[in-house]
Amino acid sequence: MEEKKNTKQINIELSDEMAEGIYSNLAIITHSHAEFIIDFVKLMPGTPKAKVKSRIILTPEHAKRLYHALSDNIRKFESLHGHIKETKPDMMPPFTMGGPTAQA
């Protein structure tokens, strides 16, 4: 006998405007005991000011799910296209916004 899987399907709507996406070359991550905040920033060379283009607020559980999903997708990408070269941390400008912060 074949077991039926209890699968729920989610219908996700993507507007034309959202489908265009927003360019970001820097992510600043802060967190509290209850949430992770990821600010996606567009940083242009030679410009002293950068602008947050999008902010995503996640629960710690969803932040961890995102971490695992990104890790899995990076591994798959690199298996097809080769190692992704990383910029050295000392080449990135310092950022301080108060509170625990990480950059990506």
Question: How would you characterize the overall build of this protein?
Answer:
With 104 residues, this protein is an alpha+beta fold. It has one domain. It contains two helices and four strands. The chain has helices at 16-19, 60-81; strands at residues 26-31, 36-42, 51-58, 101-103. A hairpin with an 8-residue loop joins strand 2 and strand 3 (51-58). The mean pLDDT is 86.
Please give the number of β-strands. 4
Please compute the radius of gyration using only Cα atoms.
Answer: 18 Å
Q: Span between N and C termini?
A: 49 Å
Biggest sheet character = 4 strands, antiparallel
Number of helices, counting only DSSP H or I runs of 4 residues or more: 2
Helix fraction by DSSP (H/I, runs of at least 4): 25-40%
Strand order of the largest sheet: 3-2-1-4
Would you identify the regions where 5 or more consecutive residues have pLDDT less than 50? Answer: none
- Percent in strands: 15-25%
Query: How many domains would you count in the coordinates?
Result: 1
Give the overall silhouette. extended
| Helix and strand pattern | HEEEHE
Please state the structural category: alpha+beta
What's the average pLDDT?
Answer: 86
Give a short overview.
The protein has 2 helices and 4 strands, in the order αβββαβ. It has helices at 16-19, 60-81; strands spanning 26-31, 36-42, 51-58, 101-103.
What are its keywords?
104 residues; alpha+beta
Write the layout of secondary structure elements.
Blueprint: H1 16-19, E1 26-31, E2 36-42, E3 51-58, H2 60-81, E4 101-103
Antiparallel strand pairs: 1-2, 1-4, 2-3
